[in-house]
Write a structure and sequence with these properties.
Length: about 100
């Protein structure tokens, strides 16, 4: 098992921050950092996710398809940080055109 190759931070509408790390296993039953952070948010009774950041090796990365799907069902207008320098975000629904719901 390998943990922490990806870290994520999410923010809620009332500015609570939640973090998570990835969990990678040899059999691919891992868990993404973004979903780890979302689980912490939901456990804390929060549900208004507004922003997400994921990093790997000090580089901003995009959430995977499974994480995007989960976040779309929570709030399709979530701002995804895509770049720090320059600071740049994109609305999640722009990354998921023709969404099925």
């Amino acid at each position: 098992m390998y943990t922490g190759s990806v870290a994520a931070c999410i923010a809620t509408a009332d500015n609570h921050l939640y973090t998570g790390i990835s969990i990678d296993t040899a059999c691919s039953i891992g868990f993404c950092a973004e979903r780890n952070a979302i689980g912490s948010m939901l456990t804390d009774g929060q549900n208004k996710l507004t922003k997400v950041l994921a990093v790997k090796d000090s580089q901003v990365i995009m959430p995977c398809g499974v994480c995007r799907e989960l976040m779309m069902q929570i709030n399709p207008n979530i701002k995804v940080l895509t770049s720090i320098n320059p600071f740049k975000t994109v609305a999640l629904n722009k990354l998921m055109p023709n969404y099925w719901m």
